[in-house]
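thread: overnight batch results

M.L. [08:02]
morning all. the overnight job finished for the chain we discussed friday. pasting input first so we're all looking at the same thing
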Amino acid sequence: MTRTFFLYIEENSPLIKLHPLLKISFLITVNVLPWIIDMPLLLVIMLMCLLALYKIMRIPLKRLCKFIVLSIVIIQAIMFSYIFGSKIPGRIVYVSFPWGTYVSDKTLLYAITVTLRFLNMLIGSTMILAVLRDIDIIYGFLYLKIPYSIAFTISLALRSATIFIDDYFRIRDAMVLRGVNFDKGNIVTRARNYSRLAMPLMVLGVRRMIELGYILEVKGLGDVKKRTFLYEFPLRPIDVALLMFMVCLVVVTVVLKYFLQVIRFPGWPFS
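M.L. [08:03]
and the structure it wrote out:
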């Protein structure tokens, strides 16, 4: 198993071996395409393809279970905002509210489209973030001609988030061993127990900031014109082909929507 930012993945997973530039490009693509596509049917097809990739790339689907509660909350917020706070014209108006909004035959269709966009972005981003490593962030952005300091800062931000999560669970487990129960009691009792985690987390955070300052000084992070790198990631023909495919996919989608007017909302079969 190989350790990434957020979990352990099989070493033979195709995504682990993917070129860092392709990982960054795929992450950008799965977040750009849903905002370009208005057609619900295409968004459903994209969602099915992403779920199939989880199986092909040997990434457990159970990793998505952590986001089920978050997804349900966000989907509910989207539906409520469209139903009670929108005025989308349609052929038929089903319900009118005293505050001036109404529900037409296109209201739910718009809400479903936004929900599908969110799910595509969440599932696609989770798949790539599950296999991202420090070197993938740094080398991927370097291939995009982004300065090393910016690439290192982004990598450090993601690493700090995972370290904070690890520290949180470590401190929480230590408090459970000392007899603190986070699952019993009323809301005030639970909030008080969780508030006791703040001080040790702050102390650990300050210590890590001091240590990080020393590390950055030793690494010589700054405006250095020539740098040496430990790893080499040559672009193979298959990597170039995949990169061109993603670029062409975005370009074709833009042309179909904005120039040929083929995949504009609501699109077949809802037109």
